[in-house]
């Protein structure tokens, strides 16, 4: 009994502490993710307060956090939105990959982390945080802006790219041979295609399986099916996260809306746990040595994301100020960079510095992103020598 | 009028059009049923000068306000000759999901509902079985006192 009491106290202290951190974050209008990471750094190995006895729970909770993050990402989009998004934005999506995956990969190669590290870091710097970006666009009242669909379609493409990238990464990290890797890529591509086709044609049947008018039954069915699919996908080496993402896409319509509403608090809880555990497993003393690289990467990938947005918006006939806003909106990196780094670190096939670098990078980008998005108008107004006084309306 | 419909993946849909004066104006409909009224900036048509969040009730009320002034001014015109009779438009707050008969408005105030405006569309001469929805506006004709009393009843006084 004594052990249970200690575990409860530790867990309670962690959640309460995160609550306080989250409150501070929203007060300054930034995402709480960097603060959760800092919170995790403060506990655990090499941190101020070591935690014992709840490792098993926190480990499983953080896995569930990843599954829920990806499930809700999938629920956000319907299959038809994904396919039209893909058709409309694939060129911008490819530019996005070329500009933003390369800096991460290059940094990893320069640090001598080899091709596996390069693949992981490419993902870390490539993927924008759709969570932070959606929040920032809403807060800044930009949802009605003409460039916003461009921002969203780039995010849609990135999320689809994740569905292909994660299984590849999982296979490579598992030390699979080239053939094994290709098989896994084949399986995941097949799965993505099948799910999209099934969701487009028969989405309502899948929705009907999990749907229920009773809240409790619905919650259990959705959560249960997500964990089942994630587990099976993980067993097939396709990555648990992708399984959850595909299930999310397959569930559509009002069922998806209800599921989102119901699972959001659960996701916030378990995802917070995931960020803390990631911070926990990172030794704070390993951060300062990589801080310089992280800052350089942050600088370069801020510029490359702005270039990506600028290019994508220009193709849609959006004026200079709108192009600048598109680029700035895309800068934030967050939860998915940590998901990728988490996968890489858990496999043990990459250097420990990768976790430290990813942590420092996301800490910077999750803070820089919203700031850049907020102040892009006055700054680019000055740079573009816009005759109009931008920002005059507040 | 050309209304441009743009899907916003993960958020909802944006519907907007350009006014004759060249301003872009429209609505972002969120998936969860909320609305945002958007008005484009004059110097930068890509951006919104205002985006005003509206609950479904508020959106319906706004639609009613925009759709019905002509109706009231027409009715006022007709009643000008009859002294002591005025027309007012009253929001139906207290009787949402109940019928016009339930209000017993004519017996209680001697004012009568000549039309109900819902989402910008006028439903003339509603019968006692007419079911009010949230956001409906009742066009009421009566004496000044009668209208004050009617306003109290309909808005929940």
UniProtKB/TrEMBL annotation, chain A:
Membrane topology: Multi-pass membrane protein
Keyword Transport part of the UniProt annotation: yes
Transmembrane segments annotated in the record for this chain: 6-26, 33-54, 60-78, 90-113, 119-138, 150-176, 182-203, 215-232, 290-313, 325-348, 354-376
GO molecular function terms listed in the Swiss-Prot or TrEMBL record: antiporter activity
Subcellular location: Membrane
Keyword terms, alphabetized: Membrane, Transmembrane, Transmembrane helix, Transport
Any one Gene Ontology BP term: proton transmembrane transport
Ranges of residues in domain Cation/H+ exchanger transmembrane: 21-372
Keyword hit for Membrane: yes
Pfam families per UniProt: Na_H_Exchanger (PF00999)
A GO cellular component annotation in the UniProt record: membrane
Similarity comment: family membership: Belongs to the monovalent cation:proton antiporter 2 (CPA2) transporter (TC 2.A.37) family.
Protein name per Swiss-Prot or TrEMBL: Potassium/proton antiporter membrane subunit (CPA2 family)
Automatic annotation (TrEMBL), chain B:
Name of protein: Potassium/proton antiporter regulatory subunit (CPA2 family)
Gene Ontology biological-process entries: potassium ion transport
Protein origin, superkingdom: Bacteria
MF annotations from Gene Ontology: monoatomic cation transmembrane transporter activity
Domain RCK C-terminal: 95-154
Domain Potassium/proton antiporter subunit KhtT-like N-terminal residue range list: 1-70
InterPro entries: KhtT, KhtT-like_N, RCK_C, RCK_C_sf
Organism annotation: Umezawaea tangerina
